[in-house]
Write the structure tokens for this entry.
Amino acid sequence: MTFFRNGTFRYVVGRLGQALLQLLGVVTIVFIILRLTGDPAQLLVPQNATADDIVRIRHQLGLDQPIWTQYLQYLGGIARGDFGFSYVQNRPALDLIGERLPYTVELAIAALLISVLVGIPIGMISAVNRKRFIGRASMVFVLIGQSMPAFWLGLLLILVFGVWLQVLPTSGAGSILAMILPAVTLASLSFATVARITRSSFLEQLNAEYVRTARSHGAGTGRVLFGHVLRNAAIPIVTLIGLEIASLLGGAVITETIFAWPGIGQLTVQSIDARDFPVVQAIVLFVAVVYIAANFVTDMLYSVIDPRVRLIAVEG
Amino acid sequence: MNAQAPRSAARRRFLRSLPAAAIAAATALILSGCTFGAPASNAGGASSTPATGATSIAIDISNYPSTLDPGLQYDSSTYSVYRNIYDQLLRRDPKTQQPTAWIATKWSNPTPTTWDFTIRSGVTFSDGSPLTAEDVAFSISRIIDPKFSSPQFANFSAISAATASSPTELTITTAAPSPTLLSYLTTLSIVPKAYVEKVGNAGLNTNPIGSGPYEVASATSGSQITLKANPGFWGTKPSIPEVVFRAVPDASSRVADLQSGQAQLALDLTSDQATQLKSASGVQVLSAPTERVAYLALNVLGDTPTKNEDIRKAIALGIDYDSIIKNLLGGYAKPVGTVLTPLSLGYPDKLAANKYDPAAAKKLVQESGIANPTLVFPSSPSYNPQLIQAIQSDLQKIGITVTIKNTDQATYLKSVQSPSHDWGSIRFGLWSCSCLDADGVLLPLFKTGSIWASYSNPDFDAAVTSARKSLDATERKKDYATAIGILNKDVAGIGLYQVSAVYGASSKLTWKPDAVQSLYVDQMKLGK
Amino acid sequence: MTNIQRNPQSTVALATMQMPGLNGSRWAKLRSMRAVLPFAVIIVLYIVLAAAPALFVGAPSLTSDLSARLLPPGTAHGGAVHLLGTDQLGRDVFNRLIYGTRVSLVIAFSAVVCSGIFGTALGVAAGVLRGATAAIIMRLTDIILSVPFFLLAILTVVALGPSLLNVVLCLTFVRWPRYTRVAYAQTLEAEGKEFVRSAQAIGARGMWIVWRYILPEVLPSVLVVGTLELGTMVIYEASLSFIGLGVQPPTPSWGAMLSDGREYIASAWWLTAFPGLALFLLVLSVNMLGDFVRDRLDPTERGRLQ
């Protein structure tokens, strides 16, 4: 194949370079903004510390150096695989993230499952029953989900299921039951998006020539639906799911705060509050890597499947 | 578009989109070590809802301990856990609150700057090694080593050396006579020297080995930590074999856990929640006055209306202390007459509580000569916003406009501790030294040059410095009476109230909270 | 076709553009207009409340009255009836709810306008100037979009200090890339069109071309993004307030009211119920209206959807 010849190879390398540059840009921006937020020295000393203690700690953490020196040290560290030590816990930042990340991934996957299991059927129903009541009603349901602020939903769920009915735990990560409320809260926005995309791609398919042709040949709605429509409609849905994962991973801050779910969302807020720079930087780096990597690999596969994409990119 | 085209086009599009989904998910999972099944199973066998009853107690704390190394952190959530794993050199007597024997059985004070301690024999760490005076000396030395960066450094900075002359004899030398040494030694947790030297500080944090009544059974970082009774403990076996500390940052969730029986003890509740619990069944409210004092510090040095003495006096007279205590704090507080509580040594015996006299306050504001005084009141989420706004409201009523400046804690500290004293006019604080002594309160808050003091009075400085140097309680009390007199006259600080710690507990729990908010589970009893 | 560009930010935009209801007939248009009317009324009501709250509830309830804490809705106290109860400082909830409208609307609207103008300007600039400028702008866009929005927002507000202005600045900083991408794509498309090339051929100057020909092509898509963003900005402002990074007390903000009320969720449900409801209604109405506007603005989509 022509895969390893000049054009494509250059394209791949070019995109790889762009991806790395993007990563560097992300890390730099966050690095700078973090240092604009002040410094953690005062938070790390006990209340009866003296001014000298604060100066000493600042020096120990290297925070009294000019920002560019700190920046280069940070980059050098990353090159060596050292992502910094948490100021608060004095442990490698990666360890902290490693401990908390599985919780967020768990929650994100649960939320995604809910979005998909609820969103797709609703989208399908409202597409197929566009003119009827049930179709309209399901779109209203979707709209409500989209407009509902996640934290309000979370609080309402706590009120109903935790306080009044007392059937579900409202905080912590002790059991599978404890995951239900936060997952539903997190799913509320993405289920609406999934439902909408399902609906529109179904609508499009239903109107497409080949469906009408199949129907005019006497094929029943069911067969048409599940035979062709579902398969074709699946494409944009799956794309969306992939992208939602990245956004769920990066977010979930509010949900984890309300439900005290010990994931990286909660860790992010806590670390920013505590000015734990290494941890915040590590979190940002991680999420950016996931996001950029996902985009990058997809780009690569696109260009393999559709050479026009590559050519346009090279030219423009 | 013919019927055939969609299929191959569809397939292409399908293939195109799958990678995005798969890669995003896979990258995340791979990078996280694919351990997402682990957390649920990491609870170490002990279920998240421990069976209520005498075999296990679940305690809801506000934050997961940031470290289990007792030298590296001593905020209440953290020490609540590790002080059950490690022994302290001394403990406080539950009735008198005075330091009594624990690991040290007796002590003497041959010269004003030397202290000899006899260390209990027969104590072993949970790995079987014996606890000796060497371990105590080591525990102290690491804290006073500036390179270790212990937050307790200031508490023990009076100590110049700690040496073990024999496995059961320890000598502590202080640079100057230290009247608060014994008090602070009740917060000294003893770590095993050989173990720490072997595994390092990081190792101590991940696998703590102590000699206390409990040892770590399992830990789920960020979520909960389970302790079980230490079979080799030298003292009376605790009556509750298992303790689960659950990190629940949200206070209303802690209350909900109590009500549903998922927790048997909840820390750091507000008075509103206590009121809510009082009417619930199966739960009780435990509370005890503490040595923590709520205060307002005034900026006397900066360019702000509080530079004016009349304004300061007006502020002191213009706050409705009783209303705050009764309505805002539900009675879980007591009035005070200065920035100190009666439980601390140095609180003058007959000191009257602060007076509320809005009429006199209004007059003082007018006499101050400042038209429309406007104060800046910096604050952060660490402080009760209701209280801040209540104070703002009170001062509004006597003719002083108050602008609240909310920032997060780091920004707040930076501004308030700035030596240029331009942080504003008044600030609120809650102070406790856990030493039950005025030395730990007045000095760091108001002595010239302290990071917290926007006030400078050489007579005050002389009084508190002299009190620090003497070991004679009577002399010290006299010095503090002088210092407090000066402080109150200058109105550099206003004592708002003495904090009562509020705990929610199952009605089957028997426990008496103490004045320094210690949490020794071995002192608790839990009925079935 | 359902064109999900690998551009997640416009994914939602494109997906929601395909709302139903329009099939070109007048009857259908009228029907959907009737459906949207109540929401338009709600928004107008909110705007009126934000502009002149004093007309409805009098002076703002800013001072605390500790003897009137946590009264349930409908309680009479001190000569007045507290329709929605009082909060933890004794202030009237209804009053604060109305005054809170101001904060939500002002911040959300300003954020959308500022980020929209800034982002569109950059996008058009990138499309017109091409070359290195375009590359830099689009790279910057990608970079900012790679950082989880909320994290960046928190960081920015913490760095600037929480205040109304800074929240608007922060939201602008974080959201402008969304407009840039759409504006850039539309600018490129517009430039390819005949009339632009003819204009260039007869020597028309750059800025004039941009103003006269390109912007009208760009604006509909940008407005589409803007209507989507409005609801989102309301929620994000409330989220920032919720974690304490919004406008400062005693200025009421719904997000802050929700956060304050969290502690009392079991004992004083009205503290969380009403601000949340107010938020929800606003966002719902904005979204409904936004869908309606989008349908009108996007003739191409309408044509495709039959």
Observations:
- Chain B touches chain A through 81 residues (CB under 8 Å).
- Chain B is about 35% helix and 20% strand.
- The longest strand of chain B covers residues 283-298.
- Confidence is low (pLDDT under 50) at residues 1-22, 24-52 of chain B.
